[in-house]
């Protein structure tokens, strides 16, 4: 649960005419939203602008895309993992079992209790954390923010009506009369769309899918709707596998809480996934207290190392090498020793061979010198993994039997389990790399991601990876 600080939208709000009484620069308010209210009043007294009679489909078929920019650098608590996925696999444990332990209503709700989680998160932010955070950042199909004060923290940029779900053709723009607008017409209609697919979140470049049985735009196997809308949605999601880009979110990797530093049982009953629901009330309370301390002692101006970038360098350096060593292409122990020496040669003093020194030089290659004595969790974790890689290579390089030496490297590869070894290769321009993204995807998609047509990536059978929905 590290700190995050999304940067502001670099695009300014649209310029409004100087004589507009609702201009934000005149009064600091949300002029665009008030313009909408005035628009509704105009319709009530004078009819729709341009004389066009309102269509029932305007209110029932189409939603509205709200685009905002942040009014400041937001201070958010980032919940790691797919923390917005409503599953029974543990994705909600950090919230339900730790942050809101004992407070969440046990009764099922149509929205998976998301409104209740948002209320509890903002109540905690405002009261227990004394307003030191503005909300919570989570991942599902993309990233989302539970923002506690829209009026204070967001500046409206624009509100646009999205394409109707029906295929009814709309006239070309040139045919519209002067003053014709397809903007919001009634508050009630607009709110109704928010319950379905009118986004209230920051515009992240993707449209929300129409709802269906089993989740947003789902098919019998839990996939999004087919066709161009589904394709655009999936392309937007998969384009962010390696991050949302632009430093829009800056994580403080020196300031976070992880249950892996606690002496607790996370893998009961031979589970392959860590769970927090089985922890005792005392263990949960201790972890929660760390989160509170994390927020209350954090200073936004604190400078920290980018441990994600350092980790990426280590993965880039060794991923292909390790894959090659276990590929079956090496047919003799002499060749394996030569290949390992090639990788380790920058750390070898050939005048005086010393395994301990070589491993240490190798393990600290990418670590900043200032981090050696810090004792931080991230520094210790990255050093520990790098040390295991280097020591395993040194040990394999001293082996005399090819199969046993390579088995040692296989064990290392299994321990690391890097995503680079499961990435799709060579997807065509109209394809995406398919992995389980709640509520979509199968067990096969998890075990062996494949390139698939972006217009119907989950249109196949198989056991759903996520199981039933969490209520």
Automatic annotation (TrEMBL):
Coiled coil location: none
Domain of life: Eukaryota
InterPro entries referenced in this protein's UniProt entry, alphabetically: YOR389W-like
Biased composition (Gly residues): 212-228
Transmembrane segments: none
Chain intervals for the UniProt region annotation (Disordered): 1-61, 161-233
Basic and acidic residues composition-biased segments: 23-46, 165-207
Protein name in UniProt: Uncharacterized protein
Species: Penicillium desertorum
């Amino acid at each position: 649960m590290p700190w995050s600080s999304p940067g502001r939208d670099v695009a300014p709000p649209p310029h409004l005419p100087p004589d507009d009484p609702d201009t934000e620069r005149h009064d600091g308010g949300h002029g665009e939203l008030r313009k909408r209210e005035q628009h509704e009043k105009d319709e009530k007294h004078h009819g729709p602008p341009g004389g066009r009679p309102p269509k029932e489909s305007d209110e029932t078929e189409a939603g509205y895309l709200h685009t905002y920019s942040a009014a400041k650098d937001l201070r958010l608590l980032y919940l790691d993992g797919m923390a917005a996925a409503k599953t029974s696999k543990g994705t909600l444990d950090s919230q339900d079992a730790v942050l809101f332990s004992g407070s969440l209503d046990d009764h099922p709700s149509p929205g998976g209790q998301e409104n209740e989680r948002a209320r509890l998160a903002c109540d905690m932010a405002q009261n227990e954390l004394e307003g030191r955070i503005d909300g919570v950042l989570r991942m599902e199909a993309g990233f989302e923010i539970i923002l506690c004060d829209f009026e204070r923290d967001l500046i409206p940029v624009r509100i646009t009506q999205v394409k109707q779900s029906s295929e009814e053709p709309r006239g070309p723009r040139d045919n519209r009369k002067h003053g014709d607008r397809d903007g919001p017409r009634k508050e009630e209609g607009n709110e109704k769309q928010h319950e379905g697919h009118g986004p209230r979140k920051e515009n992240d470049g993707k449209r929300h899918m129409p709802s269906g049985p089993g989740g947003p735009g789902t098919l019998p196997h839990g996939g999004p709707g087919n066709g161009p809308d589904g394709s655009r949605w999936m392309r937007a999601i998969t384009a962010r596998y390696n991050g949302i880009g632009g430093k829009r979110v800056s994580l403080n990797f020196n300031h976070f809480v992880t249950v892996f530093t606690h002496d607790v049982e996370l893998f009961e009953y031979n589970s392959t996934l860590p769970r927090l629901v089985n922890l005792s009330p005392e263990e949960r309370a201790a972890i929660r207290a760390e989160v509170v301390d994390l927020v209350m002692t954090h200073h936004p101006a604190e400078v920290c190392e980018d441990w994600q970038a350092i980790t990426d360098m280590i993965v880039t350096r060794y991923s292909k090498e390790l894959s090659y060593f276990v590929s079956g292409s090496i047919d003799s122990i002499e060749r394996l020793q030569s290949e390992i020496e090639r990788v380790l040669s920058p750390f070898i003093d050939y005048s005086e061979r010393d395994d301990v020194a070589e491993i240490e030089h190798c393990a600290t290659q990418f670590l900043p010198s200032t981090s050696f004595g810090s004792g931080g969790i991230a520094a210790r974790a990255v050093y520990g993994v790098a040390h295991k890689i280097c020591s395993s290579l040194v040990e394999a390089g001293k082996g005399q039997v090819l199969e046993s030496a390579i088995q040692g490297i296989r064990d290392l590869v299994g321990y690391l389990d890097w995503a680079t070894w499961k990435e799709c290769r060579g997807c065509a321009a109209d394809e995406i790399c398919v992995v389980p993204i709640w509520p979509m995807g199968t067990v096969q998609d998890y075990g062996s991601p494949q390139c698939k047509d972006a217009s119907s990536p989950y249109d196949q059978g198989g056991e759903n990876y996520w199981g039933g929905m969490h209520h």
